[in-house]
């Protein structure tokens, strides 16, 4: 009996040992940005915060359950063949005076990249990012030049940490809810979003790797005119600079949001255009100054998006209240080089407000697009009979085939 018990215990121990040691070790490269000198100046707040955030990010990821082991870059080699980096591609503050208030939007985005160390080829990319609006009643400093730069850093710090205490802004608040904060006191911010993506990466080997992502983004002449301030609208305040409407920044936002939403809904990696890439390569720089050149994948399948237009209409009103509909209209093509499936999609986002209150139309149009993209991603997961004829130019059976084609194709890139 003792011999049998010993054999069972030994077998269990060997099974456990094999299971532990069969886990692949992945190198953690941490936070990176584009290595181009002109791009480094585009990340002033990230650069000021990375010494605080990067170690916390590793601490968080290390503590999470993962299907692999993680080894910090720079330790003695243990045979790792793959590495993970978080490549930040955009830090942006846009806005200004709008009505009687000052409205700023803070945005920071990145891509979680899994790549092979030998050939420096990208194997997976997962877009992550956060955006947050701040309204200030004091308009005396409502310009980029006069805006409080220390408060900018504090707001980005809170975006990373998932905290919202800006209304209490002071030197003490910066110390308590940024500089001296620990993981246990942080909220659901960008850091935890990154941690979730990293910990859920599938790192198993594949013989035939397929890649899907965002391809071409286009804006029709009418949509561009509206975004630029025509048809009784102002130029989009979050995507306007000294030269007027910044079309490329708007396209970057659209591609990032669509990729992130579909990727997170279906748990599938999607490639988005990487700022600073040239000839299919992007150069990234680690915190110690070391630069690496990664080869970006060519897309086998892509979402090609056309922004067709916007419309605002009064749906209902009473003596005290109003209900406005903000319409957004997009064409979504998906497929490979040989053929693509196409669908026009639309959404009517309803805003109820007190009559006479100031409305930021572009915030509501952005909400309309966000709502549309979320619903579109849900249809890929499971099509709804009523949604397709109401929100697309297709009948139910045609729409069902369209979304099933996307779902089946994306299964090949997981």
Can you give a write-up of this model?
The model is unreliable at 4-22 (pLDDT under 50). α3 (44-63) runs parallel beside α4. This protein has 2 domains: 24-205, Rossmann fold; 212-270 and 300-414, Rossmann fold, CATH 3.40.50. 31% of the residues are buried. By secondary structure, it is of the alpha+beta class. It has helices at 2-21, 37-40, 44-63, 149-161, 171-179, 190-199, 221-227, 247-266, 361-381, 387-391, 396-411, and strands at 25-34, 69-72, 82-98, 101-116, 122-136, 212-219, 240-241, 244-245, 281-285, 291-295, 301-317, 321-335, 340-354. The chain is 35% helix and 32% strand. Strands 1, 2, 3, 4, 5, 9 and 10 form a 7-stranded mixed β-sheet that branches. A 4-stranded mixed β-sheet has the order 6-11-12-13. A two-stranded antiparallel sheet has the order 7-8.
Number of helices: 11
> Radius of gyration over alpha carbons?
24 Å
Largest sheet properties = 7 strands, mixed
Q: Unreliable segments (pLDDT under 50, ≥5 consecutive)? A: 4-22
CATH architecture of the largest domain: 3-Layer(aba) Sandwich
Number of strand segments: 13
Structural class: alpha+beta
Looking at this protein, list some descriptive labels.
single chain, 414 residues, alpha+beta, Rossmann fold, 2 domains, seven-stranded mixed sheet, four-stranded mixed sheet, 11 helices, 32% strand, globular
Topology:
Layout: H1 2-21, E1 25-34, H2 37-40, H3 44-63, E2 69-72, E3 82-98, E4 101-116, E5 122-136, H4 149-161, H5 171-179, H6 190-199, E6 212-219, H7 221-227, E7 240-241, E8 244-245, H8 247-266, E9 281-285, E10 291-295, E11 301-317, E12 321-335, E13 340-354, H9 361-381, H10 387-391, H11 396-411
Parallel strand pairs: 1-2, 1-3, 6-11
Antiparallel strand pairs: 1-9, 3-4, 4-5, 7-8, 9-10, 11-12, 12-13
């Amino acid at each position: 009996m003792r011999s049998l018990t010993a054999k069972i215990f030994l077998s269990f121990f060997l099974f456990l040992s094999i299971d532990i040691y069969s886990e692949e070790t992945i190198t953690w490269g941490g936070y990176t940005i584009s290595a181009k000198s002109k791009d480094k100046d585009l990340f002033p707040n990230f650069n000021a915060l990375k010494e605080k955030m990067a170690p916390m990010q590793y601490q968080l990821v290390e503590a999470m359950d993962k299907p692999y082991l993680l080894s910090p870059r720079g330790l003695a080699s243990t045979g790792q063949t793959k590495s993970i980096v978080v490549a930040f591609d955009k830090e942006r503050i846009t806005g200004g005076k709008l009505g009687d208030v000052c409205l700023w939007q803070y945005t920071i985005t990145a891509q979680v990249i899994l790549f092979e160390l030998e050939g420096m080829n990208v194997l997976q990319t997962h877009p992550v990012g956060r955006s947050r609006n701040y309204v200030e009643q004091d308009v005396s400093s409502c310009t980029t030049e006069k805006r409080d730069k220390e408060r900018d850093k504090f707001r980005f710090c809170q975006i990373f940490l998932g905290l919202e205490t800006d209304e209490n802004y002071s030197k003490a608040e910066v110390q308590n809810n940024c500089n001296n904060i620990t993981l246990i006191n942080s909220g659901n911010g960008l850091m935890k979003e990154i941690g979730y993506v990293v910990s859920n990466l599938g790192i198993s080997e594949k013989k035939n790797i397929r890649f899907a992502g965002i391809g071409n983004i286009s804006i029709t002449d009418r949509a561009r005119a509206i975004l630029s301030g025509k048809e009784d609208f102002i130029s989009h305040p979050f995507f306007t600079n000294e030269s007027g409407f910044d079309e490329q920044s708007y396209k970057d936002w659209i591609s990032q949001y669509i990729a992130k939403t579909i990727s997170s809904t279906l748990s599938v990696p999607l490639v988005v255009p990487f700022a600073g890439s040239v000839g299919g390569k992007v150069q990234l720089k680690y915190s110690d100054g070391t630069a690496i050149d990664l080869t970006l994948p060519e897309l086998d399948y892509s979402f090609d998006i056309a922004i067709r237009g916007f419309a605002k209409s009064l749906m209902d009103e009473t003596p005290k209240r109003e209900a406005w509909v903000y319409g957004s209209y997009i064409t979504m093509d998906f497929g490979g080089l040989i053929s693509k499936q196409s669908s026009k999609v639309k959404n009517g986002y309803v805003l109820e407000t007190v009559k006479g209150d100031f409305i930021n139309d572009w915030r509501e149009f952005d909400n309309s697009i966000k709502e549309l993209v979320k619903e579109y991603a849900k249809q890929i997961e499971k099509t709804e009979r009523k949604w397709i004829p109401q929100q697309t130019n297709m009948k139910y059976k045609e729409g069902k085939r369209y979304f099933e084609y996307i779902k089946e194709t994306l299964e090949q890139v997981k």
